[in-house]
Amino acid sequence: MKPFRERNPLIIGAVGLTVIALLMLAAFFADDLPIIGGGTTYSADFSEAAGLVPGNEVRIAGVKVGKVRSVGLDGDHVKIDFRVDNAWVGDQTTAAIKIKTLLGQKYLALDPQGTKALDPGTAIPRNHTLAPYDVNEAFNGLATTVGQVDTSQLAQSFEVLSQTFANTPQDVKTALTGLSALSKTISSRDQQLAQLLGNTNQITKTISDRDQQFQTLLSDGNLLLQELRSRENAIGQLLTGTKNLSAQLSGLVNDNQAQLQPALQQLDKVTTVLERNQANLSKSIADLAPFYRVFANTLGSGRWFDTYICGLLPPAIGPINPEGCTP
């Protein structure tokens, strides 16, 4: 075998890049590999997709067991491929598209039935599948339908119908008169109804666009409630301890009320005296500042008093202070 130094470096580089590309593809599609990815891929036929998209969860009895791989049109029905991992799927299994959140996110629910395992090459038939009623699509369709209805012509039709059955029995006449009044009301509120349905459509679209944020908010709220539940005993003990502490403090005050009352009365007298002599205290503090300044200068030269006595020597020897001893 030739050493790598004697081989063509271009061929070695190309082979290395190819191997790296294959490893990256294998890592990216690891879930689809037969050994690494695991799980079995099945399919089901539905009358409609009902908002189910690839990546949605597959659940059995509320437990996630896989995810939807693809959703596509197959003739006059919708074919959904999904992968199931570590779960048994029988030959009589039923599948239903259900609503996961109030914002319209869906998941595929399986109900395993039958006596033998389902063949992955055999799709779950349409008589064993069920698609939900999509409220968002209903509102969207209602808004479009109302916008296309000629409410004026509808009101006129009900009016003519009411006049035609004017001589009919009272019950029929009353019912038609009510329909005529209803049609007139709808016709007069045509613009408001169209605006209301348009706003409803916009609100549902906004909520649907914010589905992930709502899920995060609900998940965080669930985590908060779980944390509060897990710390229920600690919170209960804290509240009980606070209650006991307040009881002990109340008892302490009651037991020492005879001693505390005279002390508070004496303290009140002291504060009264201090308040009455507040001006004198302020003046004493103000006069204390020069004294401390002179006292600091007196002791600032060492461990002695640096001062003199004015008038100790007679003036004939020599006046120490020409201005006299009068300050």
UniProtKB/TrEMBL annotation:
Signal sequence segment: none
Domain Mce/MlaD: 39-112
GO cellular component terms given for this protein: extracellular region
One Pfam family of this chain: Mce4_CUP1
Domain named Mammalian cell entry C-terminal: residues: 116-303
Protein name: Phospholipid/cholesterol/gamma-HCH transport system substrate-binding protein
Protein species of origin: Kutzneria buriramensis
